[in-house]
């Protein structure tokens, strides 16, 4: 829960400060610097999308923010507090919802609440509220294996919301779904954002998805291991992805990424780029 003083202070809820991460490989002499001093401030209630080509470090950044992975240097601050491990205040929803197939929808959503020691009747009340919010009330007693991919992702969203995190971290949660289901879930997620005012950080390699959802779109570059450019999208949502305004921003994003696509096609890494600059 965020205090009213904190809301009034207008400070960033989440601060990513100079985060760097390099992976080394036993079978290769080359290291791969995926994130190179990345800094982002996110305010309470913002819906920020991060877009970038496959392999640019989106998941690595999200995992570091969630406390699932350690940065080599840099810090993650939430409400000004340094965070170094996972906690229910920062929850990730993955592409595969990571649900328990042997439990029902209701039991899955109640699970985290049970772990948090919430009394049984409150568990039921909170779980039912969020199952209703993702429009799955009729399926509360269904088992996960009986659900479609889109329904599973709705359960994952309900389960995360029930725990009332400060920040919802979403790692390409709709990437495996068909286009119609994805569009439907975009609209549902926007309604949920409107209703709950949760802070959401959503990563995707899909520019349309980033532009449909985000009030701010951050373009991550694998060549820089950092932010290439940031766009504020001051257009009402739900948005018409084919509108001239969106098409204009999309062209700008593609232009920003063109260099990176060429760079990635050559199989380069940031370490390689640094070496090239020295030559
Ligand atoms: N644990 C790890 N060990 C070694 N290399 C890793 C590890 N995790 C990620 N990488 C490498 O870091 C780079 C960035 O990976 P990451 O998954 O963060 O990218 P991404 O932008 O999320 O890609 P995608 O859109 O395909 O999911 C990739 O080259 C990947 O192979």
TrEMBL record:
MF term (GO), any: ATP hydrolysis activity
InterPro entries (UniProt xref): AAA+_ATPase (IPR003593), ABC_transporter-like_ATP-bd (IPR003439), ABC_transporter-like_CS (IPR017871), ABC_transporter_ATP-bind (IPR050166), P-loop_NTPase (IPR027417)
SUPFAM superfamilies: P-loop containing nucleoside triphosphate hydrolases
Keywords: ATP-binding, Nucleotide-binding, Transport
The keyword ATP-binding is annotated on this UniProt entry: yes
Residue ranges constituting the ABC transporter domain according to the UniProt record: 14-249
Pfam families linked to this entry: ABC_tran
Protein name: ABC uptake transporter, ATP-binding protein
Lineage, top ranks: Archaea, Nitrososphaerota, Nitrososphaeria, Nitrososphaerales, Nitrososphaeraceae
């Amino acid at each position: 829960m965020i205090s009213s003083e904190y809301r009034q202070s207008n400070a960033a809820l989440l601060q990513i400060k100079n985060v760097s991460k390099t992976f080394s490989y036993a079978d290769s002499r080359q290291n791969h610097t995926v994130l190179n001093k990345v800094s982002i401030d996110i305010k309470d209630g913002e819906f920020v999308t991060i877009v970038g080509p496959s392999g640019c470090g989106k998941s690595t950044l999200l995992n570091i923010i969630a406390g699932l992975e350690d940065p080599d240097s840099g810090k993650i601050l939430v409400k000004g507090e340094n965070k170094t491990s996972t906690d229910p205040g920062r929850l990730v929803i993955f592409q595969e919802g990571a649900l328990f197939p042997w439990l029902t929808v209701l039991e899955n959503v109640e699970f985290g609440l049970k772990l948090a020691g919430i009394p049984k009747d409150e568990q039921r009340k909170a779980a039912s509220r969020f199952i209703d919010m993702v429009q799955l009330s009729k399926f509360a007693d269904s088992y996960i294996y009986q659900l479609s991919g889109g329904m599973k992702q709705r359960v994952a969203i309900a389960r995360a919301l029930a725990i009332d995190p400060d920040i919802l971290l979403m790692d390409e949660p709709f990437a495996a779904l068909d286009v119609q289901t994805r569009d439907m879930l975009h609209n549902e997620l926007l309604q949920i954002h409107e209703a709950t005012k949760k802070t959401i950080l959503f990563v995707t390699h899909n520019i349309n998805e980033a532009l449909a959802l985000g009030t701010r779109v951050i373009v991550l570059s694998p060549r820089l291991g950092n932010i290439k450019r940031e766009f504020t999208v001051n257009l009402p949502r739900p948005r018409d992805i084919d509108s001239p305004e969106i098409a204009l921003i999309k062209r700008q994003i593609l232009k920003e990424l063109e260099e990176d696509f060429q760079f990635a096609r050559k199989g380069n890494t940031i370490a390689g780029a640094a070496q090239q600059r020295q030559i």
